[in-house]
Structures are given as C-alpha cells and as structure tokens.
Amino acid sequence: MEGEYRYDPLTFSVTDAMKADYDRLGYVLVRGLLDAEEMKMLHTSLEGPGGIMDHAFMVDDGLQKQVGLCIWSHPGNDVTGMLARAEKTARTAELLMGHGEVYHYHSKVTFKAARSGGSWRWHQDYGYWYNNGCLFPYMCTAYIGYDKSGKENGGLQILPGSHKAGRVDHDREGGQFGVNEERVQQLAKVCPVMSVELDPGDALFFDCNLLHKSDANESDRRRWSFLLCYNTKVNNPVKQHHHPCYTPLDIVPNSAIKTCTNYTDMTGKEFMNPDTDQTTRYNPNSAVQK
User: Fold this and answer.
1) What span, in angstroms and rounded, lies between the C-alpha atoms of 48 and 45?
2) Which distant-in-sequence residues (6+ apart) come within 8 Å of 13 by Cβ?
3) Are 210 and 123 within 8 A, CB to CB?
4) Taking Cα atoms as reference points, which of 85, 84, 186, 210 lies closest to residue 137?
5) What per-residue confidence (pLDDT) applies to 51?
6) Residues 179-233 pLDDT 10s
7) Which of 173, 156, 165, 141 is nearest to 212 (CA)?
8) Which CATH number fits domain 4-259: 3.30.70.2190, 2.60.120.620, 2.60.130.10, 3.60.9.10?
9) β-pairing, 194-195 with 120-123?
10) Which candidate among 106, 140, 208, 277 keeps its CA 20 to 30 Å from the CA of 235?
C-alpha cells in the first residue's frame, strides 16, 4: 500500500518522506505501531470487567442496521489514556500535521457485530468537526486496527488524495452525516477507492478531510477499531460543544504504556451521553452487540 511504513521502536520517527506522503495522500499507514503486549493490554482495558465498553451505545446507519460507538473526551490515566498520550501516537500526529501543539479531541471505539454490523457512509471527520466551531482542518485521527479488518468484515475504505478537495457538504441519514453520493463518484474517478487492510496494532493516521467509509459487516468475523482523534492548540474551537476545547496534553514516553496497571479507573474521561450528543441518534431500545 502506498504511504506504508513499519514501526521499529528503536528507529521510528516522522521523516520528511512520511510527512510528504501524509500531505499528498492524506494518510500514512504505520504497520505494527502497537505490539502484541500492548494490544493485549488494550483488549483487557476495553473488554475486561468494568471496562470502557460499559459506556457503549448503538447508532442507526439508515439502512436497517446498526454500528456501535463508545466515545470519551479526555485520555485519563488508564491504558487507553497512555496510548492516546504516548509519543508514538500523539507526537506522530503532531509532526504529521505540522501545525504545532496537539491536544486530545476524543477517543472512541467503533464496532460491528459479525453478520449484522452496519455501515458508515462516505464522510470526512471535518464534515462533523467544522460544525463544532473548529475553524481550520488542523485535525487528524489515528485509526488503530483492533480486530483484523478489511473490506470483507466492514473495514475502512478511503479515497487517497481526496483531502485536497477541502470540506464538502454533508447531510443526515439515520444517525449519520454523509457526503452526497454523486460527489463521491466524481471524486473517486480521480482518487480511486482503496480498501485498508489492517492487522491488530496497525495504525492509519489520516487527515480530517480525507473521505472514508465502511460497508456493513456480512462476514462471520466481528470488526472493532480503536481511534484517537487530535486537534491543534491553534485550532481551539470557537464554541463549547460535546468534545473538548483546548486542554493541554501531557505526552508521555512510549514505555508508559506497558508500565500502566490501570484498567478500570476511568476518572476524568467524560464518556459521551448519546441522549445529548449532537452528531448521533441513539435508539434506547438497542442492545450493545459485542
């Protein structure tokens, strides 16, 4: 895959070539950003007793299926917080964007049950975040594979280079905002669709204007993903909303991940309440499907 790199804990850095790929393609893919031990820790944090997924909820995809979400505002001091604050995630996002200091905009888990998980429409993250008072697209996401994922089980699809089209209009369908399909088809002629195949621990860092989607999961394998979203200090939102305004991020060395023993203390994370969220519609009769 173009724009692909391999993480080496001894030598990894954001090189000029990597920055150039991010600017040109709207993404870079870093294979093996999280190792097997870190993924095991993340698994315990998300799926262990008293874990983060106790705060999950479901969203209607407008096509009679549902996708799952769990969203929180601040990193906290648990394992997921260390992952969000680590040099290899936060600093990499900061250097790829090149707009100075970053802060944690939010983290989330998206999940699709086997055979029944819904889809995400073509959209840009900035299509949502623009309406939150973020004046500039100085924002990015580190999309980390949790389960092995690809097109077969509703994995991520992107239009490489589409971030250069700038923000495009979105409309609501079901519990989601998405881009007009005709506009997507035109962009796909010059930015051909690419399916992103991820193993657990692989990370796609992508620009907030990169168009992306994922289809329904018709396979026998579930598909979960772990996402870290970053904004920049200079892009502090001009209005209060359901995600944080600028909050200094205490970036920690990568070693802080494996020395963390906190899996259940969620102090300060501020989980999203779907009843008051501005970008989703919650069906209170829907059970979370893991």
Assistant:
1) 6
2) none
3) no
4) 210
5) 80
6) 988 999 999 999 999 999 999 999 999 999 999 999 999 999 999 999 999 999 9
7) 156
8) 2.60.120.620
9) unpaired
10) 277
Which residue reads 């992508």 in tokens? 206
Instruction: Tell me the C-alpha distance between 239 and 189, whole Å.
Output: 37
Q: Which two tokens stand for residue 174?
A: 């079901």
65 and 281 in contact (C-beta within 8 Å)?
no
- The domain spans of the chain are 4-259
List, in sequence order, every residue forming a beta bridge with 210; answer none if it has no partner. none
Report the SS3 class of residue 53. helix
* Tokens read off for 27: 């993404």
In the numeric block, which tokens belong to residue 54? Answer: 């106790």
- The string of pLDDT tens digits covering residues 29-85 is 999 999 999 999 999 999 988 889 889 999 888 888 999 999 999 999 999 999 999
